[in-house]
Design a protein that fits this description.
CATH superfamily: HUPs
Order of helices and strands: EEHEHEHHEHHEHH
Radius of gyration: 17 Å
Helix content: 25-40%
Shape: globular
Strand order of the largest sheet: 1-4-3-2-5-6
């Protein structure tokens, strides 16, 4: 596993001071809005992005743009290789579903599910948080307009929070009481977009597509693009991204 700092204003292992939080930042609409919410609540942000071998690698460039836009204190990108395991349309040579209806997206677990991804990402965020002495971890999961992923559900988040406080030195010794924040979990995409807009989020910096073309232009037909476009339409707003379809 390789780690690199995308933007840093302090030494790698220096503890934070004051009200700090780790934010898992993919560069997508939800994680960007979550970061903006955390910032609005007065947190100093330590952003974490993960290069896990995803096909839609343009999201990592978006994460760097968003981190700069939000003025995070430190942005780390950690490289792991979930593509070695495959078994997902996001990491293997498996076709990304296109043109699915809302009803189809609301049933079953799609092939874009990456096995144990949020567990891996939250574990990395937990390690980062313990290092910088941040008790708060923000994650942009959503259980309303989402694609059926099991690791986006409230019961999963509650279980991981219990684990975080059992599995860390800081949790056992009581120096930190870890809290997993999911401010978007009961919001629709339209509500998320409205909230982010109120907070000054520039959604033109974000990226959502699972299957972009070679230039990075989003396809407009995968689940992520369809949910995003539906959200902007229902919010009565224009999506600043240009789609190939």
């Amino acid at each position: 596993m390789e780690t690199r700092a995308s933007a840093t204003t302090n030494t790698p292992n220096a503890p934070s001071r004051g009200k700090s939080a780790v934010i898992l930042l993919s560069g997508g609409l939800d994680s960007t809005t979550t970061a903006a919410v955390a910032k609005s609540e007065g947190y100093e942000l330590f952003a974490l992005s993960v290069d896990y071998g995803q096909r839609h690698r343009f999201e990592l460039e978006a994460a760097a743009r968003v981190a700069k836009h939000l003025g995070v204190k430190r942005h780390e990108t950690v490289r792991i290789d979930l593509a070695r395991f495959g078994h997902s349309a996001l990491t293997a040579d498996i076709a990304v579903p296109k043109g699915r209806s809302a009803d189809e997206m609301g049933h079953g677990i799609p092939v874009t599910y990456v096995p144990a991804r949020n567990t891996v990402l939250l574990s990395l965020a937990l390690a980062y948080a313990e290092t910088v002495e941040a008790a708060d971890i923000f994650l942009g999961v959503n259980a309303i307009d989402y694609s059926g992923y099991p690791d986006c559900r409230p019961e999963y988040i509650a279980a991981f929070e219990r684990l975080a406080n059992l599995a860390t030195k800081a949790g056992v010794e009581g120096t930190l009481q870890f809290k997993i924040h999911t401010p978007l979990i009961t919001m629709t995409k339209a509500e998320i977009i409205r909230r982010g807009t109120q907070l000054g989020v520039d959604y033109g910096l974000t990226y959502s597509c699972y299957d972009p073309d070679a230039s990075g232009k989003p396809c407009g037909r995968c689940d992520a693009c369809l949910l995003r476009r539906k959200g902007f339409a229902e919010a009565g707003m224009t999506d600043p991204l240009e789609y190939s379809n």
